[in-house]
Design brief:
174 residues, mainly beta, Phosphatidylethanolamine-binding Protein, PEBP-like_sf, PEBP_euk, PEBP, OV-16 antigen
């Protein structure tokens, strides 16, 4: 994992709550591929010092593609969701911009060790207006080798929340 990304993890101060059909992501717990077929629900609180109209972008990336032992396609881009805004005490999040990368659930092979899946929440600049092409395209092969650190730096994204899980194929044996 890039040193830039690792150093910014310590700055994350927002509790990012993620769940797949009611099963919470809890900083490294294991999910099977079928548990992640549908996009998860996302909840987070407003940052204490952020303006009330702050918006956020969620990235879901896999640093272990195609396998943890040979991550030549890291970071695999599974989801890029901009324009998220927490709705006060309503325990809900509004999405005010369309997805830049549509959700594609984890799909590690059964013979692969579990992959790490990082859910990274960034505060985005108020004037940020990206297209799907700015992220790299939707095609399967366009999602691989996504340079997360370069993307974050280029668009001045500020990491505020992190969560992660392990994903394994349905037939993977421990």
């Amino acid at each position: 994992m890039s040193n830039t990304l690792l150093s910014s993890l310590a700055e994350a101060n927002v509790n990012l709550r993620v769940s797949f059909d009611g099963k919470d992501v809890e900083l490294g717990n294991l999910f099977r591929a079928t548990e992640c077929k549908r996009s998860p629900s996302i909840l987070f609180d407003q940052e204490v010092d952020a303006p009330g109209d702050a918006t956020y972008m969620l990235l879901l990336v896999d640093p272990d593609a195609p396998t943890p032992d040979d991550p030549k396609f890291a970071f695999w881009r599974h989801w890029v969701l901009p324009g998220l805004r927490p709705l006060g005490s309503a325990d809900a999040v509004a999405q005010i911009q369309p997805a830049l990368t549509e959700y594609l659930g984890p799909g590690p092979k059964d013979d692969s060790k579990p992959h790490r899946y990082l859910l990274l929440l960034y505060r985005q600049p108020s004037n940020l207006d990206l297209t799907k092409d700015d992220v790299g395209g939707e095609e399967f092969t366009q999602r691989r080798s996504f340079d997360t650190a370069k993307f974050v730096e280029k668009y001045d994204l500020q990491l505020v929340g992190v969560n992660w899980f392990l994903g394994a194929g349905d037939g993977w044996k421990e």
